[in-house]
Amino acid sequence: MPATAAFDDPTQLPRHVAIIMDGNGRWAEQRGKFRVSGHKAGVKSVRAAVSFAHQLKLDALTLFAFSSENWRRPEDEVSALMSLFIAVLGSEVRKLHRNNIRLRVIGEHRGFSEHLQRKIADAEALTAANTGLTLNIAANYGGRWDITQACRRAAEQVAAGELNPADITEHHLGSLMSMADLTEVDLLIRTGGEQRISNFLLWQLAYAELHFTPVLWPDFDEAAFSEAIAAFVGRERRFGCTGEQIRALAEGRGIGNRD
Ligand code: IPE
Ligand code: IPE
Ligand code: MG
To answer: What parts of the sequence cross the membrane (predicted)?
Structure first.
């Protein structure tokens, strides 16, 4: 039975899944190898996760590939990661395009070499009109950077006389954050056993369900992804309401609140 058979009711599935792909270094170290071989092994898990998200017809999959803090790593690891990023963009983009997948890279592109920035821009342009899964790769991304760039843009709008400070609302700032045009993140998965956000999506995770698994990223396969989705399906999301209100909503009854 395909794993997807357990997820027949698409209304129960998350629409947008984000993943902190952690544990590559430990995976390699456990095998007596260099950390970079763990990053290379992680590429096949990226392929598997994208293909599963595509099969499940999710709206969006957002993968944390390189944080704004990962520049602190040893220089040879950083440069190996950049080379891997360039190589993977080169080898995978056409396949993504054939599958109607739209690729976006979120984060501060200016931190990358011009060569990589060009590759990213080309890949985004090639796939921009695709209507299937949106695949966001978070690279040189930090949740605090994202909130800061949104605030800076709002300040620029005020300085240009286009915006009144009173109109800097949650809704307006939200519209300036990365991925503002996509469905909200429903489910965050972190592999590798740590239970923290590590400056990933701070604003966008406000009401996401969190799933932590000890599985190291290179071992994260369809079964592990299915397990995370099954855990999500079993949860009740209340968005500040009571459980009774949510059940009433699901049954089409009113929830008797002030909205
Ligand atoms: C995640 O794996 C990949 C990146 C941060 C680029 P790690 O490299 O953090 O692996 P561990 O946590 O050291 O095992
Ligand atoms: C988070 O993992 C970043 C990515 C997976 C890209 P880290 O391994 O960098 O996080 P910390 O350092 O353990 O918090
Ligand atoms: Mg790590």
So the answer is: none
pLDDT tens string 70-90: 999 999 999 999 999 999 999
Give residue limits of the domains in the chain: 13-250
Q: Is the CB of 67 under 6 A from ligand 2?
A: yes
- Ligand closest to Cα of 39 equals 1
CA distance 213 to 47: 19
Which pLDDT belongs to residue 41? 98
Exposure of 8 in the CB half-sphere (CA atoms within 13 A) = 3
Read off the pLDDT of residues 84-139 as tens digits, 9 standing for 90 and up: 999 999 999 999 999 999 999 999 999 999 999 999 999 999 999 999 999 999 99
Separation of alpha carbons 123 and 106, rounded Å: 13
Q: Is position 70 annotated as part of the catalytic site? A: yes
By alpha-carbon position, which residue is closest to atom 3 of ligand 2? 67
Q: What are phi and psi of 75, to 5 degrees?
A: -55, -40
Please state which CATH class domain 13-250 belongs to: alpha beta
Instruction: Identify each DSSP E strand in 45-133 by its residue range.
Output: 60-67, 102-106
Q: Is 218 in the pocket of ligand 1 (CB under 6 A)?
A: no
Contact 15, 60 (CB under 8 A): yes
Catalytic residue status for 100: no
Report how far residue 120's alpha carbon sits from residue 187's, in angstroms, rounded to the nearest whole number: 26
* Centroid of ligand 2 to alpha carbon of 63 (angstroms): 12
Q: Is 26 annotated as a binding residue?
A: yes
For residues 177 and 205, is the Cβ–Cβ distance under 8 A?
no
Instruction: Average the pLDDT over 192-207 and give the result.
Output: 98
Is the distance from the beta carbon of residue 46 to the nearest atom of ligand 2 less than 6 Å?
Answer: no
